[in-house]
What we know:
It contains three helices and eight strands, in the order αβαβββαββββ. By secondary structure, the chain is an alpha+beta fold.
Amino acid sequence: MEDQKNQADSSATPADTTTPKVVGIGGIFFFSENQQETRDWYAKNLGLVMNDWGSSSFEFRNMHRPDEINSLQWCPFKKGDKYFEPSQKEFMINYRVQNIEGLVEKLKENGVTILDDIATYDFGKFIHIMDAEGNKIELWEQI
């Protein structure tokens, strides 16, 4: 028990911000038979408020940089939406990353399938990869 406490204490120190790695979850996306009914159900029963993009945004503060506000997007997609391709799975996770360029280099060195090039928008940089189980993963670095 003491070892677990010491590990938790050591992980609470601010981390290096340049090491290419995942730093959190940026979004949870899944197929839905009826997007609007699914959104309505979650709004009515669980209080999820949908934004202009048809998702719900959960905001939180970075515990190491309390002035930084992060968000997690939750969004049902129409079943069969091509955005999940080439994955055959019914979900996709978006991971928040730091140093996306360095991470892509590391992934290439490790033989990971990279599906596209880094795309940059006002709200961040994105790239898609496949994991060993055939899950499409979206990587996002907030800018």
